[in-house]
Amino acid sequence: MSRVHNFSAGPAALPDAVLEQIRADIPDWSGTGMSVMEISHRSKEFVALAERAERNVRDLLGVPDDYSVLFLQGGATLQFAMTALNLSQPGDTADFVVTGHWGRKAVKEAQRFCTVNIAADAEESNYSHIPDEGSWNKSADAAYLHYTPNETIGGVEFAFIPESGDVPLVADMSSTILSRPIDVSRFGVIYAGAQKNIGPAGITLVIVRNDLVGKARADAPTLLTYKAYADSGSMTNTPPAFAWYVAGLVFQWLKDQGGLSAMAETNERKASKLYAAIDGSDFYSNPVQVDCRSWMNVPFVLADATLDGAFLEESKAAGLTHLKGHRSVGGMRASIYNAVGEASVDALIDFMQHFEKTRA
Ligand code: PMP
User: Fold this and answer.
1) For a tag site, which of 84, 124, 214, 349 has the least CB within 10 Å?
2) Considering the chain, what percentage of its residues have pLDDT values greater than 70?
3) β-strand partners of 300
4) Cα of 98 to ligand 1 centre, how many Å?
């Protein structure tokens, strides 16, 4: 295979071993004489795949028994609404901590269904820090507290889990899930679109504490209730079978790598060396406060923005793709998810240093 160093924020790089497995499985998956896209989701082979995927998520993340592991559609964006529909009733208030673009979007969607209290908003630092937890203005009777553990665009990541007391903590983990171990028991709902650390777009992982299932508002459509998925093994209707299958291969790959502790070690090392390269140069900079820099998404700017075009063109020619920052912030961003190997990060650092030398 001829593969580039892919720094895409999502859909993002998948492990080579997973792609090879897909290629081998396509004509004849699991001895069925057909691909996984051509078989009933009710078949024993597919049901076994679904059960294995759930088991592996439970193993990898240490999901307690009183939580359901669900596979949905609609991406993380649908969860902005589904969390509100399932955890609040009309007139309830939900607390939100906003540390970037995606948290803001989550607020907008939740506001369609409940009252939103912005407990904290990092806008004053242009989303380059996390407001001190002690200063959060939480409401007395929130239906839930929502935050974004990793903001994919700003590159701001929580190194701690907020304390929410009895209020269910809801986390959009789209761009950090499976990058390190987490204590699932601290959360009411964890959700993540797949297309970064899980697999292809089209499937969404939701981990929900069982006492929060079955409380959706009465007029919520069936497919927007967690209960429908919890009651049916996430087969309320025809699921995105191919995406589910690939996610299952990624879960197995993660186990083969040594699980999330091993991933965390590698991810921290990858991120540290990239930040060190950025901080060690006057040519590049990263605006995020050091204690909340993301391990997964590393934005950086060139001191001379007129060189952005040349940087992107030459990096692409060197086999490094998708380094352009999100259109809302500009500059560069390297997304270095689980499947982006250390060699890719090394190649990026080499390129950055080479580019700086040719321009200095
Ligand atoms: N939340 C975060 C943190 C994201 O990074 C993204 C996508 N980049 C979304 C939500 C939206 O995800 P989706 O496209 O799956 O709806």
Assistant:
1) 124
2) 100
3) 332
4) 14
